[in-house]
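Just wondering, does anyone understand these tokens?
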Amino acid sequence: MKIAIKLPFALLFLSATLASADPSPARIKELTHFVRQECGFCHGLHLTGGLGSPLTAPALHGKDAETLIAATLHGIPGTAMPGWAPFLSNADAHWIIHALKTGFPK
């Protein structure tokens, strides 16, 4: 019975650890390209806005990271914002949002 109780906590810890793990340098390069190409299509080449709102650090200041991660992965119904979950992991979305909120790499 103790194992059955501990297992959900272990899985929760593991998922939180994986979500917060930094991607490899190669994956960061891929994610940077992804954001510049895919997100930039609607949010502007420099992520300063277009069809979609700006994704700059000042524009995202004060916005809840978990809400932004959910929008990234699942989209926003009734808008042009698609969900990227088929292409991005939870850890990828965490990295992207953190990078956008702190100043996205070139």
